[in-house]
Amino acid sequence: MAGYRERQARLAGAVVWARTGVAEDELPVLPDGCMDLIWTEGRLVVAGPDTAAHHPDPGGTEFAGFRFAPGTAPAVLGVPAAEVRDRRVDLAELWPSARVRALVGALDEAADRPAALEAAVLRRAAERPAPDPALGRVVAALDAGRPVRYVAEHAGWTARTLHRRSLAAFGYGPKTLARVLRLQRGLARARAGVPLAEAAAGAGYADQAHFTREVRELTGLTPGGLLRDAR
Protein backbone atom coordinates (compact mmCIF):
# COMPACT_ATOMS: atom_id res chain seq x y z
CA MET A 1 0.00 0.00 0.00
CA ALA A 2 1.34 3.44 -0.94
CA GLY A 3 1.90 5.98 1.82
CA TYR A 4 3.65 9.32 2.21
CA ARG A 5 4.91 11.42 5.13
CA GLU A 6 7.14 14.47 5.43
CA ARG A 7 8.64 16.82 8.00
CA GLN A 8 10.69 20.01 8.07
CA ALA A 9 14.42 19.45 7.65
CA ARG A 10 17.24 21.05 9.61
CA LEU A 11 18.30 22.94 6.49
CA ALA A 12 16.35 26.17 5.99
CA GLY A 13 13.22 25.70 3.89
CA ALA A 14 13.92 22.04 3.14
CA VAL A 15 11.69 19.00 3.69
CA VAL A 16 12.54 15.38 4.49
CA TRP A 17 10.04 12.88 3.14
CA ALA A 18 9.42 9.16 2.86
CA ARG A 19 7.15 7.16 0.59
CA THR A 20 6.21 3.51 0.40
CA GLY A 21 5.01 2.60 -3.05
CA VAL A 22 3.35 4.62 -5.80
CA ALA A 23 -0.34 3.94 -6.40
CA GLU A 24 -1.78 3.49 -9.90
CA ASP A 25 -3.93 6.61 -9.43
CA GLU A 26 -1.15 8.66 -7.78
CA LEU A 27 -1.35 12.41 -8.32
CA PRO A 28 1.53 13.74 -10.41
CA VAL A 29 4.39 15.67 -8.84
CA LEU A 30 3.68 19.30 -9.75
CA PRO A 31 6.25 21.98 -10.59
CA ASP A 32 7.31 23.78 -7.40
CA GLY A 33 10.76 25.23 -8.14
CA CYS A 34 12.44 22.61 -5.95
CA MET A 35 15.03 19.88 -6.46
CA ASP A 36 15.08 16.58 -4.56
CA LEU A 37 17.74 14.03 -3.66
CA ILE A 38 16.02 10.64 -3.54
CA TRP A 39 17.15 7.26 -2.24
CA THR A 40 15.31 4.30 -3.73
CA GLU A 41 16.48 0.70 -3.21
CA GLY A 42 20.18 1.00 -3.88
CA ARG A 43 20.19 4.22 -5.90
CA LEU A 44 20.48 7.94 -5.26
CA VAL A 45 18.73 10.11 -7.81
CA VAL A 46 18.62 13.88 -8.28
CA ALA A 47 15.16 15.07 -9.33
CA GLY A 48 15.61 18.33 -11.19
CA PRO A 49 13.18 21.24 -11.18
CA ASP A 50 10.11 20.45 -13.25
CA THR A 51 8.39 22.61 -15.84
CA ALA A 52 5.49 20.16 -16.18
CA ALA A 53 3.81 17.53 -14.04
CA HIS A 54 5.92 14.42 -13.42
CA HIS A 55 4.09 11.08 -13.24
CA PRO A 56 6.03 8.55 -11.11
CA ASP A 57 5.98 4.94 -12.24
CA PRO A 58 3.56 2.95 -10.06
CA GLY A 59 5.02 0.24 -7.87
CA GLY A 60 5.89 -0.89 -4.35
CA THR A 61 9.32 0.70 -4.11
CA GLU A 62 10.49 2.42 -0.92
CA PHE A 63 11.70 6.01 -1.21
CA ALA A 64 13.43 8.49 1.10
CA GLY A 65 13.83 12.05 -0.12
CA PHE A 66 15.29 15.42 0.73
CA ARG A 67 13.52 18.35 -0.97
CA PHE A 68 15.63 21.50 -1.13
CA ALA A 69 14.14 24.98 -1.00
CA PRO A 70 14.16 26.68 -4.42
CA GLY A 71 17.62 27.81 -5.43
CA THR A 72 19.55 25.99 -2.68
CA ALA A 73 20.26 22.54 -4.14
CA PRO A 74 22.88 23.58 -6.74
CA ALA A 75 25.17 25.00 -4.04
CA VAL A 76 24.97 21.75 -2.05
CA LEU A 77 24.98 19.23 -4.90
CA GLY A 78 27.42 21.14 -7.09
CA VAL A 79 25.35 20.99 -10.28
CA PRO A 80 23.55 23.88 -12.03
CA ALA A 81 19.81 23.35 -11.84
CA ALA A 82 19.35 23.85 -15.59
CA GLU A 83 21.46 20.75 -16.25
CA VAL A 84 18.90 18.52 -14.53
CA ARG A 85 15.70 20.42 -15.42
CA ASP A 86 12.83 17.97 -16.10
CA ARG A 87 15.21 15.05 -15.49
CA ARG A 88 15.85 12.31 -12.92
CA VAL A 89 19.62 11.75 -12.87
CA ASP A 90 21.67 9.18 -10.94
CA LEU A 91 23.90 10.98 -8.45
CA ALA A 92 26.77 8.79 -9.69
CA GLU A 93 26.67 10.78 -12.95
CA LEU A 94 27.34 13.99 -10.99
CA TRP A 95 29.61 12.89 -8.11
CA PRO A 96 32.58 10.50 -7.89
CA SER A 97 31.18 6.98 -8.12
CA ALA A 98 33.10 5.71 -5.07
CA ARG A 99 31.59 8.41 -2.86
CA VAL A 100 28.10 7.64 -4.14
CA ARG A 101 28.54 3.88 -3.59
CA ALA A 102 29.60 4.48 0.00
CA LEU A 103 26.66 6.78 0.64
CA VAL A 104 24.17 4.41 -0.97
CA GLY A 105 25.58 1.53 1.06
CA ALA A 106 25.14 3.46 4.30
CA LEU A 107 21.58 4.40 3.40
CA ASP A 108 20.73 0.82 2.40
CA GLU A 109 21.73 -0.29 5.91
CA ALA A 110 20.17 2.61 7.82
CA ALA A 111 17.24 1.89 10.12
CA ASP A 112 15.82 5.40 9.52
CA ARG A 113 16.69 6.22 5.92
CA PRO A 114 15.09 9.70 5.80
CA ALA A 115 17.08 10.74 8.89
CA ALA A 116 20.28 9.22 7.45
CA LEU A 117 19.73 10.99 4.14
CA GLU A 118 19.17 14.28 5.95
CA ALA A 119 22.38 13.79 7.93
CA ALA A 120 24.30 13.12 4.69
CA VAL A 121 22.92 16.29 3.08
CA LEU A 122 23.81 18.35 6.16
CA ARG A 123 27.38 17.02 6.10
CA ARG A 124 27.66 17.90 2.43
CA ALA A 125 26.19 21.36 2.99
CA ALA A 126 28.78 22.02 5.70
CA GLU A 127 31.54 21.27 3.18
CA ARG A 128 30.20 23.63 0.54
CA PRO A 129 29.86 27.42 0.26
CA ALA A 130 26.43 28.61 1.40
CA PRO A 131 23.91 29.55 -1.29
CA ASP A 132 23.90 33.23 -2.23
CA PRO A 133 21.31 34.88 0.09
CA ALA A 134 20.27 37.08 -2.85
CA LEU A 135 18.64 34.01 -4.39
CA GLY A 136 16.32 33.68 -1.40
CA ARG A 137 15.34 37.32 -1.82
CA VAL A 138 14.61 36.66 -5.50
CA VAL A 139 12.28 33.79 -4.56
CA ALA A 140 10.52 35.88 -1.91
CA ALA A 141 10.01 38.82 -4.29
CA LEU A 142 8.69 36.65 -7.13
CA ASP A 143 6.45 34.75 -4.71
CA ALA A 144 5.06 38.11 -3.58
CA GLY A 145 4.11 38.84 -7.19
CA ARG A 146 6.81 41.44 -7.85
CA PRO A 147 7.60 42.10 -11.54
CA VAL A 148 10.83 40.65 -12.89
CA ARG A 149 12.24 44.11 -13.56
CA TYR A 150 11.67 45.09 -9.93
CA VAL A 151 13.31 41.87 -8.73
CA ALA A 152 16.42 42.47 -10.86
CA GLU A 153 16.78 46.08 -9.72
CA HIS A 154 16.42 45.21 -6.03
CA ALA A 155 18.93 42.38 -6.37
CA GLY A 156 21.38 44.87 -7.89
CA TRP A 157 21.50 42.85 -11.12
CA THR A 158 20.71 43.52 -14.74
CA ALA A 159 17.82 41.57 -16.26
CA ARG A 160 20.37 39.43 -18.12
CA THR A 161 22.24 38.63 -14.90
CA LEU A 162 19.00 37.73 -13.14
CA HIS A 163 18.10 35.37 -15.96
CA ARG A 164 21.55 33.73 -15.96
CA ARG A 165 21.61 33.35 -12.18
CA SER A 166 18.06 31.99 -12.20
CA LEU A 167 18.89 29.30 -14.75
CA ALA A 168 21.78 28.08 -12.60
CA ALA A 169 19.90 28.25 -9.29
CA PHE A 170 16.31 27.40 -10.20
CA GLY A 171 16.60 25.64 -13.55
CA TYR A 172 14.59 28.21 -15.45
CA GLY A 173 14.28 31.95 -15.87
CA PRO A 174 12.54 34.26 -13.40
CA LYS A 175 9.33 34.49 -15.41
CA THR A 176 8.90 30.72 -15.36
CA LEU A 177 9.77 30.58 -11.67
CA ALA A 178 7.16 33.28 -11.02
CA ARG A 179 4.55 31.18 -12.88
CA VAL A 180 5.44 28.07 -10.86
CA LEU A 181 5.29 29.91 -7.54
CA ARG A 182 1.96 31.50 -8.47
CA LEU A 183 0.62 28.06 -9.42
CA GLN A 184 1.55 26.75 -5.98
CA ARG A 185 -0.06 29.78 -4.26
CA GLY A 186 -3.29 29.30 -6.14
CA LEU A 187 -3.48 25.57 -5.51
CA ALA A 188 -2.67 26.02 -1.80
CA ARG A 189 -5.61 28.39 -1.46
CA ALA A 190 -7.90 26.06 -3.38
CA ARG A 191 -6.87 23.05 -1.26
CA ALA A 192 -7.66 25.11 1.85
CA GLY A 193 -11.25 25.37 0.63
CA VAL A 194 -11.13 28.86 -0.90
CA PRO A 195 -13.48 29.07 -3.93
CA LEU A 196 -11.54 28.90 -7.19
CA ALA A 197 -12.35 32.47 -8.24
CA GLU A 198 -11.11 33.82 -4.90
CA ALA A 199 -8.08 31.50 -4.93
CA ALA A 200 -7.18 32.78 -8.38
CA ALA A 201 -7.48 36.42 -7.39
CA GLY A 202 -5.56 35.92 -4.16
CA ALA A 203 -2.70 34.21 -6.01
CA GLY A 204 -2.39 37.01 -8.55
CA TYR A 205 -4.28 35.64 -11.55
CA ALA A 206 -6.43 37.94 -13.67
CA ASP A 207 -9.46 35.68 -13.13
CA GLN A 208 -10.50 32.06 -12.67
CA ALA A 209 -10.15 31.33 -16.40
CA HIS A 210 -6.54 32.55 -16.29
CA PHE A 211 -5.87 30.29 -13.30
CA THR A 212 -7.40 27.31 -15.09
CA ARG A 213 -5.31 27.90 -18.23
CA GLU A 214 -2.09 28.16 -16.23
CA VAL A 215 -2.84 25.02 -14.23
CA ARG A 216 -3.61 23.12 -17.42
CA GLU A 217 -0.43 24.35 -19.14
CA LEU A 218 1.82 23.48 -16.19
CA THR A 219 0.17 20.25 -15.03
CA GLY A 220 -2.02 18.92 -17.83
CA LEU A 221 -5.00 18.98 -15.46
CA THR A 222 -7.61 21.50 -14.33
CA PRO A 223 -7.78 22.92 -10.78
CA GLY A 224 -11.02 21.03 -10.26
CA GLY A 225 -9.44 17.80 -11.46
CA LEU A 226 -6.46 18.18 -9.14
CA LEU A 227 -8.68 18.91 -6.15
CA ARG A 228 -11.06 16.04 -6.94
CA ASP A 229 -8.19 13.54 -7.32
CA ALA A 230 -6.57 14.79 -4.11
CA ARG A 231 -9.77 14.09 -2.21
Short synopsis of the structure:
By secondary structure, the protein is an alpha+beta fold. It has helices at residues 73-77, 97-109, 113-127, 133-143, 148-155, 159-170, 174-191, 196-203, 208-219, 223-230, and strands at 3-8, 15-22, 35-39, 44-47, 59-68, 88-90. The model has no long low-confidence stretch (mean pLDDT 93).
Q: What can you tell me about this protein's structure?
A:
This protein has 231 residues and is of the alpha+beta class. It has two domains: 3-127, no CATH class; 133-230, Arc Repressor Mutant, subunit A. It has helices at 73-77, 97-109, 113-127, 133-143, 148-155, 159-170, 174-191, 196-203, 208-219, 223-230, and strands at residues 3-8, 15-22, 35-39, 44-47, 59-68, 88-90. A six-stranded antiparallel sheet has the order 1-2-5-3-4-6. Strand 3 (35-39) and strand 4 form a beta hairpin. Helix 2 runs antiparallel to helix 3. The longest helix is centred in the C-terminal third of the chain and has 18 residues, at 174-191. The radius of gyration is 18 Å and the shape is globular. The mean pLDDT is 93.
